[in-house]
Amino acid sequence: MPKIIKNGCVIDDAAQILVLDEGQAPEALNLPEGPVFIPLAVWQAHKNTLAGRAGLGVWLDSHESVEDLAEDLDSIGAVALNFPKFTDGRAYSGAALLRTRYGFKGEIRAIGDVMRDQFFFMQRCGFDVLQPKAGKYTDTQLEAALASFKDFSSPYQAAVDEASPLFRRAQRAA
Questions:
Q1: DSSP string, 34-58
Q2: Which end of the chain is least crowded, N or C, by CB within 10 Å?
Q3: Residue 174 has what pLDDT?
Q4: Cβ-contact 129, 108 below 8 angstroms
Q5: Is residue 174 included in any domain, yes or no?
Q6: pLDDT averaged over every residue in the chain
Q7: Whole-angstrom Cα distance, residue 125 to residue 114?
Q8: How far is 166 from 149, CA to CA, in rounded Å?
Q9: How many domains does the structure of the chain reveal?
Q10: What confidence tens digit (pLDDT) does each residue in 93-116 have?
Q11: Cβ distance 21 to 39 under 8 Å?
């Protein structure tokens, strides 16, 4: 069972992330019971029957846009955004858009090449669950990685987690 970081804790997670095989039609995919993240194409093919299903999330690859889910966000409890490699940062923008422009209150999960040195910045952009690739970190390394969320005591820039930049928050003597 993969480990995730959620609400500042390392926990086991039973959610499956389904991936379509090459040439597999989204309409032909059979969904397992329990918590599952499905590709955007599967959601688009089955959203009328899947809307509101408990434990269901939709995952988007880096080339897919969160705008494609905008009308359906009330029917989805969780969105996972894929980092296919650590140098591809498009999912940061997707998470920020989900939180700010679309007001999404559900879970936003980072999946794929999720690395410790990016945990703090992912949280600032709106991610609340981080799921590194299975086997990338030991349990001990993940527990130690929780310190990454305190890398900076007071960030300079405004972001999803802090709307004002430091110069607007700082108290200065007259």
A1: SSEEEEHHHHHHHHHHHTT-TTEEE
A2: C
A3: 65
A4: yes
A5: no
A6: 90
A7: 14
A8: 18
A9: 1
A10: 999 999 999 999 999 999 999 999
A11: no
Scored b (16 or more CB within 10 A) or e, 22-47 reads eeeeeeebeeeeeebbbbbbbbebbb
DSSP string, the chain: --EEEETTEEEE---EE--PPTT--GGGPPPPSSSEEEEHHHHHHHHHHHTT-TTEEEEE-TTS-GGGGGGGGGG-SEEEEEESSTT--HHHHHHHHHHHTS---SEEEEEES--GGGHHHHHHHT--EEEEPTTSS-HHHHHHHGGGGGS-SS-SS--SS--S-HHHH-----
Cα dist. 51→40, 72, 83, 117 in Å? 13, 8, 25, 35
Q: Looking at residue 146, which CATH number applies to its domain?
A: 3.40.50
Q: Which two tokens stand for residue 71?
A: 């009308």
Q: How would you classify residue 92: left for phi > 0, otherwise alpha for psi between -120 and 50, otherwise beta?
A: alpha
What is the rounded distance in angstroms from the CA atom of residue 30 to the CA atom of residue 53?
15
Residues whose CB falls within 8 Å of the CB of residue 16, separated by 6 or more in sequence, listed in order: 32, 34, 35, 36, 37
Q: What is the pTM of this model?
A: 0.90
